[in-house]
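Quiz preparation item.
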């Protein structure tokens, strides 16, 4: 997280969309920091529904369980709506 803050990301550059596959506690916090720093979308993918719910509470734009739906297919649909 310190690296994210020290890099001073600028909105509209590399912080537009952030994929976060199978985040643990540190990954969930990084997802929240990315969102706070201006990420347009933070997409979390995990098979644990409790962790996905927590990710949404921490600011994730989307939470995908790959056992129910392919993250790639779902991301394609989101991109076409933007």
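Solution:
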């Amino acid at each position: 997280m310190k690296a994210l803050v020290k890099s001073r990301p600028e909105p509209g550059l590399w912080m537009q969309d952030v994929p976060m596959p199978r985040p643990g506690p540190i990954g969930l916090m990084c997802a929240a920091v990315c969102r706070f720093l201006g990420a347009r979308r933070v997409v979390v993918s995990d098979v644990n529904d409790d962790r996905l719910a927590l990710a949404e509470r921490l600011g994730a734009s989307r939470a995908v369980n790959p056992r129910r739906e392919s993250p790639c297919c779902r991301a394609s649909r989101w991109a076409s709506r933007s």
